[in-house]
Amino acid sequence: MELSLFEYDLPPELIAQEPSEPRDAARLLVMDRARGTCADRCFADLPALLRPGDSVVANESRVIPARLLGETIPAGQPVELLMLRPASAGGWEALVRPGRRCRPGMRIAAARGAAQITIVGQEGEGLRRVSVESPWAVPELLERHGLPPLPPYIAHHQAPKPEDRERYQTVYARRDGSVAAPTAGLHFTADLLSRLRARDIQMHYLTLHVGVGTFRPIRAARIEDHHIAAEETEIAADTAGAINRARTERRRVIAIGTTTTRALEWAARADGHVEPGRGAADLYIYPGHRFKVVDGLVTNFHLPRSTLLLLVSAFCGRDELLAAYRHAVARRYRFYSYGDAMLIA
């Protein structure tokens, strides 16, 4: 399929610049796949929209302050690093901008000069392997001097607000490792989680650390020619067991977000049985994928031509999804990371 089939028109003013407050005040577009209908609701309505016995699965990865600003040595030219993860041969993998300026051997001063970063290898478009000399280990360096990695379509991403450290994070985030938020989960509150439990709707958690696999743009003209980078994933035995029991008992499995969906489908055998364990999820879901585990999906509105839009199209149909997006645009929903959400079931 041609990537150009996954375009839609979005007025720029509908790109959300601030999150909803409170979190569950976001709007929720409810898409019924069987009936082919859409309804306008509020995210706070979610407990009433799900069924008692539904098994809801969310990604508990925590966003790290991975964005580090620095200057080249000795020229003093500005450089931005997105610190992705520890590298297998020591050092770290990082996305570096501008990539053309930052070649192996270049040195960068960061953390007001307290840290020096050297580019030691080049591994692809903007992707570098770096070594870090700092008074602190890299995770502490980022906690002290890193910035929340807001996406570039949020106007204040260059200078995030103090509240973004908490707001660009789910309330159930537990395990450090993501460099972008699993945004469908941003709408949950402690009260909403309590109301789900009161309705006998089970919550379970897995981990997929969001990295370049999730947000790297598709460059190929045909969607089949794209390859997705693997991302560290872990599904605990109790979570896998709960999901497998739900499927055996014909209760629905509702995934919160595309990252949860990808983790579950990656971990599933051909018969839909979810295997617990840890690994590198590299499953690329696009139209034609046969879903083995997920019965329902809560997700935000995604960028055109993105792997996320392709995954949701695979779940509910390209034409149906683009029609729902036109509905959302006409009713002035807010789009992307800090925007509104969909429930597709």
CATH superfamily of the largest domain: QueA-like
Structural class: alpha/beta
**What is the total number of structural domains?**
2
Number of helices: 9
Low-confidence spans: none
Task: Report on the biggest sheet.
Answer: 9 strands, mixed
Read across the widest sheet, the strand sequence of neighbours is: 2-1-17-16-14-3-12-13-15
In angstroms, what is the radius of gyration? 20 Å
Strand proportion: 25-35%
Output the keywords.
globular, QueA-like, Thrombin, subunit H, alpha/beta, nine-stranded mixed beta sheet, 345 residues, 2 domains
Mind explaining what this structure looks like?
The two termini are 25 Å apart. The chain folds into 2 domains: 3-63 and 166-344, 3-Layer(aba) Sandwich (QueA-like); 74-146, QueA-like (Thrombin, subunit H). It is built from 9 helices and 17 strands. The longest helix has 13 residues, at 318-330. The protein has 345 residues and is of the alpha/beta class. α8 packs across α9 (318-330). It has a 9-stranded mixed β-sheet. It has helices at residues 46-49, 138-145, 164-167, 190-198, 212-215, 237-248, 258-267, 307-316, 318-330, and strands spanning 27-32, 37-42, 55-59, 61-63, 67-73, 78-86, 92-97, 107-110, 115-122, 127-133, 175-178, 202-208, 231-235, 253-256, 277-281, 296-300, 341-344. The protein is globular, with a radius of gyration of 20 Å. The mean pLDDT is 96.
Topology:
Layout: E1 27-32, E2 37-42, H1 46-49, E3 55-59, E4 61-63, E5 67-73, E6 78-86, E7 92-97, E8 107-110, E9 115-122, E10 127-133, H2 138-145, H3 164-167, E11 175-178, H4 190-198, E12 202-208, H5 212-215, E13 231-235, H6 237-248, E14 253-256, H7 258-267, E15 277-281, E16 296-300, H8 307-316, H9 318-330, E17 341-344
Parallel strand pairs: 1-17, 3-12, 3-14, 4-11, 14-16
Antiparallel strand pairs: 1-2, 5-6, 5-8, 6-7, 7-10, 8-9, 9-10, 12-13, 13-15, 16-17
